[in-house]
């Protein structure tokens, strides 16, 4: 780690310049610029602030702004046009390579205060981009944002952490996981800890099982170059879904600052157990979509026939794993985590199934209470029993619903604002990233050894049979 040379306070000095390495890429165009436009619209982008995009395309400021305006019209259509135009005026473009120190140095304005450097790059370039950055004298208090997946396995993540740690203190590093900034995920803190009623029943004595589901209708969206090397488990479970699991299962923090929250999540990750080798076939599933279509009539080719997919890699587009949490609160409770692409419906939710009520009054078939914390649209639903009007012993199912539909910044806007402010609480600490790899590696190994068969499901269906 670099010496704490008295610049610690500077890490939380707001920055007004964000340098995006990979400024022409999908992440920048679909997520970062729209998020920045939202901040401009909400008057939360720094006064006089700018985004400097660095990429290899032969563009100048004007051409980059025109490209960005077209992309913003598509991906940030709900942001008022004047805010999009204002953001475009704040964009600069520098042609160069993210892995060439001279190019990166040339993109940093002279006489500037701290900057944020955002690696919006394929993760195969992280190491060389960080090595290049290490040869650039960044202004004191500058910070680094890195996208996921953070590394390709635990050893790789540890190597990246060590490399980053030579140049940046941990509080200057933002390993972005935008799902942590999703309203329902963030709202888990208030739901669990700002109510008296849930915490006492939030344990193995009362909870039967937890499901964390992230089903997507979208297929590859032109991202085969990345996705075919990642697969569903690395793309979604190693990071986003394990982070949701931690927010559901962690112990109460003693404060809401980044240190307390990340300590609690890291402690929870250390207790998460993947299936034992002999359980892999019953506690994990992998599958990939075959040709099919959506109810709109649009047809979808089989995954293996998608452009740029190498069928010999055997990449899964659906993954399901049942983890356990080896601590006093959760011992014995299955946490089933599942995600897939090209499915028939979008479904993103945490489902907490409680143990059945005592059967004495309403009988053994009374369904248990089920709590559904849904994302997109954000809502909390609790399926409970009452007794019906006709007879006292006739249970009726009712749903208590709270829609969380207040307008507000999207997750990437919160991520960018936190980066500007220097608050890494919504990001992943180095030890969390390594633990998450420790959790999924045995599953990846079992799958690559062929211990779990690759199943199939037609695109547009509910997933492999029985899921
Ligand atoms: O990081 C990723 O997330 C998206 C899902 O998040 P969303 O906020 O865009 O809905 C997923 O489709 C993608 O494969 C993954 O890389």
UniProtKB/TrEMBL annotation:
Span of domain Glucose-6-phosphate dehydrogenase C-terminal: 191-465
Glucose-6-phosphate dehydrogenase NAD-binding domain ranges (all copies): 19-185
Superkingdom to which the source organism belongs: Bacteria
Keywords per UniProt: Carbohydrate metabolism, Glucose metabolism, NADP, Oxidoreductase
InterPro entries: G6P_DH, G6P_DH_C, G6P_DH_NAD-bd, NAD(P)-bd_dom_sf
Pfam family, one: G6PD_C
A GO term for molecular function: NADP binding
Pathway: Carbohydrate degradation; pentose phosphate pathway; D-ribulose 5-phosphate from D-glucose 6-phosphate (oxidative stage): step 1/3
UniProt-listed GO biological process terms: glucose metabolic process; pentose-phosphate shunt, oxidative branch
Protein name: Glucose-6-phosphate 1-dehydrogenase
Cellular component annotations (GO), alphabetically ordered: cytosol
Cross-referenced SUPFAM superfamilies: Glyceraldehyde-3-phosphate dehydrogenase-like, C-terminal domain, NAD(P)-binding Rossmann-fold domains
């Amino acid at each position: 780690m670099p010496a704490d040379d008295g610049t610690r306070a500077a890490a939380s000095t707001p920055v007004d310049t964000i340098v995006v390495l990979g400024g022409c890429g999908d992440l920048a165009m679909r997520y970062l610029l729209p998020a920045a436009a939202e901040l401009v619209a909400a008057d939360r982008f720094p006064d006089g602030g700018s985004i400097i995009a660095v990429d290899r395309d032969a563009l100048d400021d004007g051409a980059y702004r025109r490209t960005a305006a077209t992309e913003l019209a598509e991906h940030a259509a709900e942001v008022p046009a004047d805010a999009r135009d204002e953001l475009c005026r704040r964009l600069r473009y520098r042609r160069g390579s993210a892995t060439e120190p001279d190019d990166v140095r040339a993109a940093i304005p002279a006489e500037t205060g701290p900057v944020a450097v955002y690696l919006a790059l394929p993760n195969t370039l992280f190491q060389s981009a960080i090595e290049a950055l290490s040869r650039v004298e960044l202004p004191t208090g500058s910070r680094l944002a890195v996208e996921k997946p953070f590394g390709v396995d635990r050893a790789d993540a540890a190597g990246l952490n060590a490399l980053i740690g030579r140049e940046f203190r941990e509080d200057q590093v933002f390993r972005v996981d935008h799902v942590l900034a999703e309203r329902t995920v963030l709202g888990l803190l208030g739901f669990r800890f700002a109510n008296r009623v849930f915490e006492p029943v939030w344990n193995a004595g009362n909870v039967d099982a937890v499901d964390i589901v992230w089903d997507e209708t979208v297929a590859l969206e032109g991202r085969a170059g990345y996705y075919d090397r990642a697969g569903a488990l690395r793309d979604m479970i190693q990071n986003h879904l394990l982070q949701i699991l931690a927010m559901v299962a962690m112990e109460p923090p003693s404060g809401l600052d980044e240190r307390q929250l990340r300590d609690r999540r890291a402690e929870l990750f250390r207790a998460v157990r993947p299936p034992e080798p002999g359980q892999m076939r019953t506690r994990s599933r992998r599958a990939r979509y075959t040709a099919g279509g959506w109810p709109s009539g649009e047809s979808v080719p089989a995954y293996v026939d998608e452009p740029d997919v190498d069928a010999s890699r055997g990449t899964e587009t659906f993954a399901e794993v049942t983890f356990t949490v080896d601590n006093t609160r959760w011992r014995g409770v299955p946490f089933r985590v599942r995600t897939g692409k090209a499915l028939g419906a979008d479904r993103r939710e945490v489902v907490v199934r409680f143990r059945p009520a005592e059967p004495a009054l309403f009988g053994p078939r009374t369904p248990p209470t089920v709590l559904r914390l849904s994302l997109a649209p954000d809502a909390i639903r609790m399926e409970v029993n009452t007794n019906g009007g006709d007879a006292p012993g006739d249970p009726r199912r009712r749903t208590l619903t709270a829609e969380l539909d207040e307008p507000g910044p999207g997750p990437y806007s919160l991520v960018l604002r936190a980066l500007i402010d220097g608050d890494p609480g919504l990001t992943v600490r180095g030890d969390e990233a390594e633990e998450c790899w420790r959790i999924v590696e045995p599953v990846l190994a079992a799958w690559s050894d062929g211990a779990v068969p690759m199943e199939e499901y037609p695109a547009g269906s509910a997933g492999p049979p029985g899921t």
